[in-house]
Amino acid sequence: MTSGRAVQIPGGGDLLFLTDEQLRQGIEAMYFAYRGFTADPDMILADLGLGRAHHRAIHFINRAPGTTVNNLLAILGVTKQSLNRVLRALVEQGLVESRVGNTDRRERHLHLTDAGKDLESRLSEAQRARMRKAYRDAGPEAVAGFRRVLEAMMNADTHRVYSTLKDRA
Amino acid sequence: MTSGRAVQIPGGGDLLFLTDEQLRQGIEAMYFAYRGFTADPDMILADLGLGRAHHRAIHFINRAPGTTVNNLLAILGVTKQSLNRVLRALVEQGLVESRVGNTDRRERHLHLTDAGKDLESRLSEAQRARMRKAYRDAGPEAVAGFRRVLEAMMNADTHRVYSTLKDRA
DNA sequence: CAATTTAAGTCAGCCTCGTTGACATTCCAA
DNA sequence: TTGGAATGTCAACGAGGCTGACTTAAATTG
């Protein structure tokens, strides 16, 4: 299980010696793990005729209730046409409510309905259960390392979005 | 940065206390990191009129040269019809060669051509560079934890495929 | 106040990459 | 030797990305 070796250099500081093979194993782990990561919600969604895109919207509306469409666009990194198709379906199914803004009436503020919150927690709990199991299996120190590597893997602008959401918690 | 706390219980053994909030941050980190993870190859591929599906095929054909279509199917977890479209494009572009099997002539054995190998290493190097940076930023102990959590997150059958590939290295 | 900018939404059309269904070829075992 | 299983191919459909062009309504600015 040597996915990387720490080596002390006389001058000071750690160096990581990473073979291409070690890096590739990390790449494959990322690919296969992401499949597991999405598997449980996908099954729940399929029964409702919804997809991953709907899940993402639901997740972040729950995370930042009252968010505007524009803001959600920035978080998800898709085009408004694409998001709009998804939001329309969610509103039609009574999972999301779109309220005209008070101060700026051009804006639409997004909220989950009770049914939406219900679905969100079903999806969320499925995903949390898997994450919880992975964390328990891997152990406490592993968890911190996991998060640090993921954060270092994000694009800079994505990392900013991620941090903003995290700090809002 | 306390994504999980290790707590010593008198009787022995570690316990992880994970709040839903901590789990959710892990979930969001996974989502945002995966976007970064795929971003670099996606750009290279876009110029060639190829997509992520082609990348995955190229990656695993390189990883296990001579693999059959059926075997590749098991690795990728898609339908053969879906894979076939991808393979046809790769063969047409002269990136992959499909050889009829010797012992069993129903099988096709897949190999990268020189051009295929060339593209593979461009894609691979882009992805490795990001992984390398993430590993360096996160530090040596983080890397091991990262891998352990990812492995624990996979479905059992996926994990078997992953291990088989890893051990073949 | 008029002109411009911004937020949101819509229509049309395209592409990738999943899916099912139908089918041809090849092998092997009864 | 023939029927079933395995392998791979062709066709068509759908989700969910994308671009481009446009409308409507509200806010902002000269």
Describe the SSE topology.
Two copies of one chain form a homodimer.
Chain A: E1 5-8, E2 14-17, H1 20-47, H2 52-63, E3 67-68, H3 69-76, H4 80-92, E4 96-100, E5 108-112, H5 114-138, H6 140-153, H7 156-168
Antiparallel strand pairs in A: 1-2, 3-5, 4-5
Helix pairs in contact in A: 1-5, 2-4, 2-5
Chain B binds a DNA duplex (30 and 30 nucleotides) through helix 4.
The secondary-structure element order of chain A is: EEHHEHHEEHHH
User: What oligomeric state is this?
Assistant: homodimer
| Number of strand elements of chain A | 5
* CATH hierarchy, class of chain A: Mainly Alpha
Number of helices of chain A: 7
Q: Based on CA inertia axes, which overall geometry of chain A fits?
A: globular
Largest interface (C-beta under 8 Å): A-B, 66 and 66 residues
By CATH, the superfamily of chain A comes out as: Winged helix-like DNA-binding domain superfamily/Winged helix DNA-binding domain
Which range best describes the helical content of chain A: under 10%, 10-25%, 25-40%, 40-55%, 55-70% or over 70%? 55-70%
Average predicted local confidence, pLDDT of chain A: 92
Q: Which second-level CATH architecture of chain A applies?
A: Orthogonal Bundle
Low-confidence stretches of chain A: 6-13
* Rg of chain A, Å, rounded: 20 Å
Distance between the termini of chain A: 35 Å
CATH level-3 fold name of chain A: Arc Repressor Mutant, subunit A
Number of domains of chain A: 1
Strand content of chain A: 5-15%
Query: Which structural category do the helix and sheet elements of chain A fall into?
Result: mainly alpha
Major sheet of chain A, described briefly? Answer: 3 strands, antiparallel
